[in-house]
Design brief:
The protein is an alpha+beta fold. Helices cover about 40% and strands about 30% of the residues.
């Protein structure tokens, strides 16, 4: 191999290595900032880490909203399970019982979701796709359960 070919090979290896390093750093940063969406059933399973933020979505259970100043406690359900949520702050104007919401936060050791942000749907026809899918899955599981007991 001539000296010119060696230099070219070294430059190519350095460029490929640099691109690989940049890709690895970008994917690591992306993974750390990724927020997962989970359902109340997944929260109740107890498999979620208590030190990571995630989004939980569902319908606000009727009669579950309790206010104490700016602190609000309510339950979110996916039709199969419910998870208690605590939020300190001003809720969106569209927040109300029976409506779909997504809460961002962490789960504490007592199983209570400590929300840092609560997002409500923007009109009467909208439901976040993740919530609609979770509710549909919960309904399908419920129907399969009923069919299994009828036999």
């Amino acid at each position: 191999m001539s000296p010119t070919q060696k230099r070219r090979m070294i430059v190519v290896v350095l460029i490929v290595g640099g691109i690989g390093l940049a890709t690895a750093l970008a994917l690591t940063a992306f993974q750390k900032n990724l927020l997962y969406f989970v359902t109340p059933t997944e929260v109740k399973s107890g498999t979620l880490p208590t030190d990571k933020q995630f989004r939980v979505g569902g319908l606000v259970v009727n009669g579950s909203v309790q206010r104490d100043g700016v602190e609000v406690q309510f339950d979110l359900t996916d039709g199969a399970n419910a998870v208690p949520v605590v939020y300190s702050g001003i809720l969106p104007d569209l927040f109300r019982e029976g409506q779909g919401v997504i809460a961002l936060g962490t789960i504490d050791n007592a199983g209570i979701f400590q929300a840092e942000d609560v997002l409500a749907k923007h009109d009467e026809n909208y439901m976040p796709p993740e919530i609609a899918e979770a509710l549909k899955d919960a309904q399908n599981i419920d129907e399969q359960f009923k069919q299994g007991h009828e036999q």
